[in-house]
Amino acid sequence: MEFITQFINDLGNFIFIPIIFLIFMVALGRPLAEAIQSAMKVGIGFIALSMVIGFMLEKMEPAITGLAGKTGSSLDAIDVGGAATAVMGFGSNMGAIIIPLCVAINLLLLVFKITDCVNVDVFNLHQNASMGAIVAVYSGNFLYGVLTAGLFHVWALIAADLGAKNNEKFFGLPQGVSISHPVANTYLLFAYPFNWIFDRIPGLRNLNVTAETIQKRFGVLGDPTVVGFMLGTLLGLFGLDWNSPYHTIISSVQLGMYLAAVMLLLPKMTSIMMEGLVPLSNAARKKLVKRFPDRDITVGMDTALIVGNPSVISSALLLIPVMVILAVVLPGNRVMPLGDLSQFVFFIACMVPVFKGNIIRTWLSSVILFGSGLYIASWMTPATNELFQKFGAGAQENVMYSSLNPSANPFTGLFAAASHIGIFGYILIGLLLISIGYLLKKKERSQLQNDVTV
Hints:
- The chain is mainly alpha-helical.
- The protein has one domain.
- It has helices at residues 2-11, 13-27, 32-70, 82-91, 95-111, 126-139, 142-171, 182-198, 211-218, 224-239, 245-291, 310-329, 344-348, 359-391, 410-421, 423-453, and strands at residues 77-79, 117-119, 177-179, 298-301, 335-336, 400-402.
- The longest helix is centred in the middle third of the chain and has 47 residues, at 245-291.
- Residues 36-441 form the PTS EIIC type-2 domain.
- One of its GO terms (cellular component) is plasma membrane.
């Protein structure tokens, strides 16, 4: 089993996910040629997306590092990023059991009609493995780690159903596709109460800033590429050193153009992936609707399908410098965000439809969530570092390692706290999650019946 998880990790999502796609499409009766073409487009889409996001972080890193230095950062733990924790998660003892565990949970929830999502986003189960492994190290109890990984998957599947209609409508996803990305669905949970609070704050409740309203009000200045240019230029001007004003201005303008390119390229990269997805989603929906005529079965996919939306990108770009500053000024924090800064588009994407694309609401809620998450990451730093030193790639003994994904995740804090209560704490969380899933599904089916009646 350890060999299998290591093999999956070595392949990477741009190989492993297309293989899963190919198998699913053939199983659904699609021609082999069509299955191969779709799988290739999905893999190419992942590569293209990774290239653009990696390019963004590479170009932003000098300004981000400079901004941290100017604020007098003396933080002792670095955020290694999701790619590094993926290696850690799949390479750990938890990684050896995570895939069969989560597949079994998915089947049970489908059979008992708690959820309607069939998860094919197997690669991102590394997030469950990492979280479970961190809690296991923290608590000194492997069972608590397994329960953490499993219950986190329960929520990911429940949230996939919860956000399916909003995501389909807002992002234009094919019918029958949901987002089962575990970390993105964590923050989806908080979007609803934040939206309720924002609706009751005078002034803020009437402030509707979306990519569309910006472009409508400011014309060409509101174009996503122009917004990216301005944000990148400002980040350079504030973050880069001024030893040579001429070179600083030139570098800042270049950074602005780089981020303008990201604003244009990200949606195009996700559209490549969508081209490969549509045939699978159509075939799956046709089969599933026939087999389960009374249920709205969906195929759970990666957040990569939705990160190209301008409201997602703008909110994430605005979040990056604020998180660097917060990391420095928050008393008691020890984690410097770095590796996961480029991943904010993935973390916040599922919140955006709840806020109807409102950049201000997405940004404010993200600042609160990730700012407080720094304290969870600091709390989990010893456990994360111990795990990374053992299973991470390229770990150095004299460096303290932490992460935002998943060390800063609210569920990581919840399950770590539950370990102090014992098995009863995990049972309570499990019962609560199942109850939420059951009630949400009951409400959804009742609404569908009312729609049919009307």
